[in-house]
Amino acid sequence: MAKYEVTKSLDVMGEVCPVPDVETKRALKKMKAGEILEVLVDYSMSKERIPETVQKMGHEVLEVEEVGTSEWKIYIKVK
Amino acid sequence: MVWTGLLIGLIFGALLQRGRVCFNSAFRDVKLIKDNYVFKIGILTVALSMIFFHFAAQFGWIRMSPPTFNWISTILGAFVFGMGMVLAGGCASGVTYRIGEGLTTAWMAAFAYGLTAFAAQRGALSFIRNGLSSFNVTVANENEMYTAVTGPTLSSLLGISPWIPALIVAALLLWYVFGTKTTPRKSTMDWRLLSVLLAIVAVVAYILSFAAGRNYGLGITGSWVALWNSFLTGAKLNWASLLIIGIIVGATITAVVNKEFKLRMPKQPSTYAKVLLGGFLMGLGATLAGGCNIGHFLTGLPMLGISSILASVFFILGNWAMTWFLYERE
Fold first, then answer.
1. ipTM of the complex
2. Would you call A67 an interface residue with chain B, using a CB distance cutoff of 8 Å?
3. Each residue's pLDDT tens digit, A36-50
């Protein structure tokens, strides 16, 4: 059972820096307020940088969940 | 005492990995996402190193050796290197430490970067650098803080004590670091502590490398060339090649211990072509420029070498140009 009602899931595992960040921003731009984006990332720098960037854009970071060895899910609520 | 290269490499690699120190991110994020977190780590490290290097030279522990100045080679090479690091997904130190995180794209980028640097320095591509060498400018130093012949510095240009520009520039950089707003980020350690540790490693590296007869501080490009030279010709490992081995091993250890090691592969195989091209441009660019973001930015800039100042500016411009081309163009 999923933790959040995820509207869209973005898998950016294995991508080079800063593709995870750029793809996340692009995905958020296409979404509507209240929707939830789930980002699957395995790059530690982006895991730390994405929450800060999307908060600056005005969105809400619900959780950064560790789902495996160097694998995380970032849940972002669009504002 | 070449083994001290390995020791410094282990510590430097661990710090790079833990601190996610990548100058590609540092330069790019300022423009792409208006985030100065990593950039400030770089600037604070340079400011502290500036003071540390001049003290070490004053005490005779090192003699500063800023790289030869060649305006055309430096501008061209630094711009190409700056573009290459965006394609490669990491700078010289970035792709090197990420080898230890299991990033297969970094393996490819580092491979192309080191091998191309070797070719550009002493192989089939060396004609480019040699063809431009008539523009080389060096100065003879009377001041004991420098080696006899080096590239020009702010102090040699102005004919004043190296301490005067060093203290003024360090103060300006510190004013920028602490007087302007820093983008927050939750990371593994405080960014100011990380910068202090990096600057200590940089000056200790210079002292130990000087003692081993190498007479330069941290540098990645020349060190990769030294490693390839050992691999291809059987030459004995030296301080520089051991530094690279140390960085990779050090970063691997901290990545594994902190559960950040994972074999990462991109979904699009074409990404490998992109990072290979990036590595190629980095190797060629760094050789023409006479150094990479570590040799010039982290080591040459604190000595206020004119070539390193110029190279740093064009690293950033090349980085911004490719960032725009890849990520900002709609």
1. 0.90
2. no
3. 999 999 998 999 999
